[in-house]
Amino acid sequence: AVVSTQSTGAVEKYPVKYEESMNTVIVQEMERFNRLCDVIKLSLVNLQKAIKGLVVMSDSLEKVAGSLMIGKVPDLWSGHSYPSLKPLGSYVNDLVARLKFLQDWFENDKPPCFWVSGFYFTQAFLTGVKQNYARKYTIPIDRLDLDFEMLPCDEIDTSPEDGAYITGLFVEGARWDKKKMALAESLPKILYDTMPVIWLKPALKLEISTEGRYVSPVYKTSARQGQLSTTGHSTNFVLAINVPTIKPQKHWVLRGTCLLCSLDD
After folding, report:
1. Nearest-angstrom CA–CA distance, 10 and 14
2. For 210-235, b where at least 16 C-beta lie within 10 A, e where not — what string?
3. Contacts by 59-66 with C-beta closer than 8 Å and gap 24+?
4. What is the pLDDT of residues 14-73, one digit of tens each?
5. How does pLDDT run across 121-160, given as a tens digit for each residue?
6. What's the whole-model pTM score?
7. How far apart are CA 175 and CA 31, in angstroms?
8. How far is CA 163 from CA 39, 129, 132, 134, 147, in A?
9. How far apart are CA 87 and CA 98, in angstroms?
10. Which of 22, 75, 240, 253 is spaced 20 to 30 Å from 165 by Cα?
11. Residues 6+ apart with CB under 8 A from 165
12. How far apart (Å, rounded) are the C-alpha atoms in residues 30 and 119?
């Protein structure tokens, strides 16, 4: 809700700049989260009024109340929300963490390492990374793609010269071996593992190699399915990341290995 009070200020503090696409990203992200917060706030206010008998308990408000009673995210919220399979309590905590991520960005300028799981529309951020590089070196953006480098750390305090550092991804169907800096078999009874800081490095498509790397799909949730939105992007699939591996690609394909932005708990 804190973000809602900053929508106008964000446009003034982060105006559209040719050399910095991230200004547009943060403004658009704040607008999306503002709409979600408005829907949540209005539904809860009206639900309180309906319980007191001040307004009619509509069908939509009754469904909201029913979902809250069983700890489920109401469909009314989900319809305006980013994809999430979390129960109500975890969803609220996750939403608060995303708002704090944006609030810190607004107050302290863009972070050295981006929490990629905190974006509403992640594809806009990825396009912004490539766009900054394309404009800096005057290269057509359609000739660029993202290459990836796994760093031997979980946090980092400095920004790269080009590209961006990201964190917040999980791997399912494998684990990340910090010693070998490569994918490895999952440990018993451990379904997910945390990925290290990843460096998104814009490069010419012809120069990117997948040799010795597993082309892993990245999904927003573990459902691994989505719908094609009006922007032409999937509502769940984000992108494919090349992850170093010692084993052949087909080994991880059979394991169903992928990267996730958020877990279900």
Report:
1. 6
2. eeebbebebbbbbeeebeeeeeebbb
3. none
4. 888 888 899 999 999 999 999 999 999 999 999 999 999 999 999 999 999 999 999 999
5. 999 999 999 999 999 999 999 999 999 999 999 999 999 9
6. 0.90
7. 36
8. 35, 6, 8, 10, 9
9. 16
10. 253
11. 112, 113, 114, 151, 156, 159, 197, 198, 199, 200
12. 10
Measured CA to CA, the distance from residue 156 to residue 120 in angstroms comes to: 23
Pick left, alpha or beta for residue 68 (phi over 0 → left; psi -120 to 50 → alpha; otherwise beta): alpha
| Residue 133: CB atoms within 10 Å | 21
Q: Nearest 5°: phi and psi at 131?
A: -65, -40
Strands 144-150 vs 170-172: parallel, antiparallel or unpaired? unpaired
The per-residue DSSP string of 220-238 comes to SSTT----B-TTSSBSSEE
Rounded CA separation 153/117 (Å): 18
Q: How far is CA 156 from the centre of its chain?
A: 18
